[in-house]
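Deliverable D4.2, example record:
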Amino acid sequence: MAEAFTARGLTVTLVEQAPAVMPTVDVELGRLLGQELCRHGVRVVNDVTVKAIHREAGSLIVAAPPRALAPALRCRSWPS
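Output generated by the structure prediction step:
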């Protein structure tokens, strides 16, 4: 589904706590899936634990270890 959003011109970042996307499948298959997502314009960030997500000035701020998501991810928030 992430690549469908990039096809519509949106910026998509997939943050995964595991070493590869879809951790319930084989790790190598997860890596291949991650590469395919990247090929479709999705930014894939693995091995990151998101601590919190909060609103700030019309954006959603993702709190994670400093090295993991630099620069910090910001995205427009959905209307309330």
